[in-house]
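Sat 14:20. Reprocessing the chain from the morning session after the first attempt stalled halfway. Input below, unchanged.
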Amino acid sequence: MKTKTKIFSGLFLIVVILHLLGLLQNEALAFFTKPFITISLAVVYLSSVKKANFWYVSALFFSFWGDTFLLFKDDFFLFGLVSFLIGHVLYIKISSGYLKSISISKTIGFSIPFIIAFGSVVILIKDNLGEMLIPVIIYGIVISTFGLLTVLNYNQTKRTENLWLFLGAVIFIVSDSLLAINRFYEAREIYGISVMVTYIVAQYLICKAMIVKDS
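Finished this time. Tokens:
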């Protein structure tokens, strides 16, 4: 299993490198390789565990569709948003399952940074959201909830895999925030590249955490 995992991890790395090179130099290459990011990551996960977590594989499935829909930008942006929304709901289900108990005071305390970050992004882009205001707010609440649950989980049990899960969630929030700013506030090439770099790192860290937990 270790040999297979190394091979598939190498393939994942190749896909990532090709995609990032495509973003810099070749749009067609970036377009073609993007859906294979989650596919190759799913293969890495499945080759590394004895029994796969159905909810995690499902989250990767919806992430795949999110990536695919967002390739077409304006035409399927809402479909992409909904796909990632479902993926994050599944991440919430997974993360909540690791919590043994929830402290109200800690929940309130840890939620403050997420509320500030979420509120700041919404204030920045709200004038350009139009009919997307409500979907974006719902999405922001969901992904912030995912981040909150992972920090509560890490605070409860300070294990390396829980740290990976927490960092993955936070970096995912950074990625989606950059995506929102790039689309609804100020489009810049550096934002587009940063979105994908942070997205890939986030998904990889979450995958590493799930491999440890499901091995």
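The two ends are 11 Å apart (CA to CA).
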